[in-house]
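Hey L., structure's done. Input below.
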Amino acid sequence: MKEKPKILIVDDRVENLVALETLLSDFDIELVRALSGAEALAKTFNNQFALAIMDVQMPEMDGYETVTLMRQAKSTSNLPVIFVSAIYKEDFHVIKGIETGAVDFIVKPIISEVLRGKVKVFLELYNYQTSLEFLVRQRTEQLQKEISKHKDTSQKLKIEKEKAEAATHSKSLFLASMSHEIRTPMNGIIGMADILKQTPLNEDQREFLNIINISGNNLMTIINDILDFSKIESGQVMLEHIDFNMYDEVNDIMKLLRLKASEKGLKLTSHIHPSVPEMVIGDPTRIKQVLINLLNNAIKFTDKGYVKLEISVSEKENDRITIIFKIIDTGIGISEQGKKNLFKVFSQADKTVTRKYGGTGLGLAISKNLSILMDGEIGVESDEGSGSTFWFTAKLERAISQKPESNETKSTPGIENKSHLSVLIAEDNPINQKVASYNVERLGHKVDLAENGKEAVEKYQNNKYDLILMDIYMPEMNGVEATKAIRDLEEKNNEKKKIKIVAVTANALKGDREKFLAEQMDGYISKPFKIEDLIEVLHIT
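Output:
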């Protein structure tokens, strides 16, 4: 008989635990109580939990301290935790919750639909992951039996390939799912920080805001690294094939990183050999991504001296050329053992390096995969204490025209000539509601809110809107279901002009936009969004 998923509920007041048990009584789960942080930790030693719902304010050890200790244990390092608390300061508690490792924050008194909706999402993820692990184990056992029966070398290679593909798919799915869960609260953090920038601030407040911005940007870098890696592993990265000016791209990178280098007293320079054509054909975004990653690493691991970028042509074959990019620094260097760990997933040369300089260990693995996608290679030459030279190659084409065409300046899509719109925002997260509402109202439009898909459909029936910004993952009825219900009502009522519906979601994988458009939506915007993205979707009405 299949074991029920277990959920750990932690609160120092029994009545609160009873209330949680009542709210979740019809779920096919086993609820395990803990009356303190210490008891919660003890329970995790002997149980495997799908989710933990934890009160923040507890005597002796509060929720933040408990989760911090959980993250240090291998068995609970990835356990999803939802904080609940009656004390709530928007920016402070959300940031502290994310920093300690929580995936969400719910304010007391708890809205049952919100809690049940979030629990449902995590149970589905847990059940899917458990089923997938079971299938992988089952398939592995079958394959092992096949190996024992067939000693043929080609059969062994085929089996190993299938095992590797199953493991890669499982890991990529997990990374993409967790990236989605993290991007949702990040939309609130970055959005509220952006709103705060536009208000009068004293010096202390400006300093606090800078800390929020730095922390938010650092976390988004990690999230984007994880998402990029999952895209690459699942074969979802397609390279562009466009004309671009190599010299302009390099100048942009130098401008971007020169301040960071100067803050450390480093000299940052670049040199492009005359043999490198000005105009080439390839993917400028991915080349810049690898260059910025390697240059950032060089600056990070160099305390004095210089960092320089050298670009030259290593091979020519008709119209195709191989460009070699070298990043040379006078930094800490890398030992022979350390070089063996480079370019591997979640690896750095030395654990002490991770503690001192930080980083996910994904950057070089992503750079390696991108260089391979560009028919190139990547490598390093270094001795410990004597600096390093990282290099990578990319095969590009020489553009027919070596002078960039002049383009007229294009303005960002605006709404100056648009009348004021009536916009319905369907979003279950209260912080993201505030971010979206503030920005839409700041652009001169009227806002109405719906906390789930069912409410969005009801408000559509009773009011006149020009646009609906529809979150995808909501309790009661999700965004796709709500859109279908609205389209069915339009068809039933013979509506000649259909309302514009834009998907707003933390899903950011290739194909998500096309998927939502196929579900009868008119547009797509991913979280965290920029004001320019919002203006663009408002422009479709």
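The two ends are 54 Å apart (CA to CA). The longest helix spans residues 153-197.

-- N.
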